[in-house]
Amino acid sequence: MNKLFFTVLSLVVGSQNASADMSMIQYRMSQSKFRIEEKMLINQNFDQKIDHFSNSDQRTFKQRYFVDSSLVKGDPTSAPVIYYFCGEGTCEGATSSTLVNTIAQKYGAHRVALEHRYYGYSQPFSTLVSANLKYLSMEQAIEDLASFEHYAQEQLGLRGKWISVGGSYSGELSAFYRLKHPELVAGALASSAPVLSKDNFEEYDHYVAKVAGPDCLKAIQSTVADVESKLKTSTASATAVKKLFNADMVVDNIDFLYVLADMAAIAIQYGYQKQFCDQIIAGAKSGQLVEAYAKVGTKLFSNFGLTALQDSFQGAESIKPEDYLGWAGMRSWMYQSCTEFGYYQVAYSNPAESSRSSSITLQYHNNACKRLFGLTTPVNVNQTNATFYNNLFGAGVKNIFFTNGSNDPWSNLSINEKNPNAESNPGLKFFTIAGSAHCDDLGSRISVALTQARTEFDQLLNRWISE
Questions:
Q1: Which pLDDT tens digit goes with each residue over 102-112?
Q2: CATH assignment, 18-195+388-466
Q3: What is the β-pairing status of strands 81-85 and 110-114?
Q4: What pLDDT score does 171 carry?
Q5: Are 335 and 136 in contact (CB under 8 A)?
Q6: 3-state secondary structure of 9
Q7: Nearest alpha-carbon partner for 365 in 268, 260, 258, 207
Q8: pTM for this model (two decimals)
Q9: What pLDDT is recorded for position 6?
Q10: Are 391 and 175 in contact, with CB atoms under 8 Å apart?
Q11: Tell me, what's the pLDDT at 424?
């Protein structure tokens, strides 16, 4: 499955009754200022347009949002706003990021988050059948963010400077929100943001192999070869090896091989390569390689609240939105991958430098898009890049800060010094965090490099809200 997820997503149980939530808040108008009598904590719904690009279609859906003003100092109407972008899963609110909390504390800022359409509880339709997904796009999501910001400024009195923050896909949203609406957001942090869309994303696999190192890569490759052999030997052999990985419900063999690849990829992407590699290398030495790989891989999945079935394309077949509340919205995310981004993590063209089965190809992904949504036209990443990525380098585009961990495979699609786009626009700032993984700067991990990245963001934010 296409891995872009920033945090382990847990179910947020909150009241969907606006009047009940609003009872926590008292408003008093005094000298034309919006004043808050007690801690401002909102978890409620906003009536959002289904289609922002149609004048005739006035249908709306309930989009969930969060506001926390408990750290605001002084006049709430002029306090800055940290606009935390939720991505491809159930939104936990802006307080789920350690960095956001630290920044909000320092600047006395509101913390605001908007759940992404078609994820979590913000569902325009009761089912996720293909026909209902036509309004799921980054363009629509960006206009959702703008529409809600106008509402928050006018109805909630949040009229200070807004700064957007996001990680991974939501980091991409953060960058492009600043690009499309510089009048609404003074600056943007785009952590681990893959702003370049690409279908045949073989560089991901190559980077996983590189970060793993030669000994770990050899163990991964040996595991893949052994499992492939078992899948071909007999039905009983295939069933047994799938059961070892808690993947006996995954029917398609290539889907299962993708699950196998994701176990290594998640370990690398999220900074657990040492634990993962140490255990499988030890397994290789003891003659229990596949068993060791299965043990550490399934444990990693369990820690992320993820099952093998959920990780597979088969896990994106359900059309029930409630089936995706506990983890990430796999079906919705795959639709975006199939129609906008690609991001297909195919096997690297040189097998010696690949960590995954050679059967994981571009064609396999295209077939998955057809299988899930009936799509027969491959994703047009050139169109997506023409609308978004290419415009990042236009005159006047500025106040976007890109951060990437040096060990993150997604850094290949972001803005940093190893990519040819780094110096294309002096208005864009970037920082590569040595030794770090995907979205580490938004979380609680600590290192000298992470402190440097956070300090640079702090300095930029201070300048943005002062301009």
A1: 999 999 999 99
A2: 3.40.50.1820
A3: parallel
A4: 98
A5: yes
A6: coil
A7: 258
A8: 0.91
A9: 41
A10: no
A11: 80
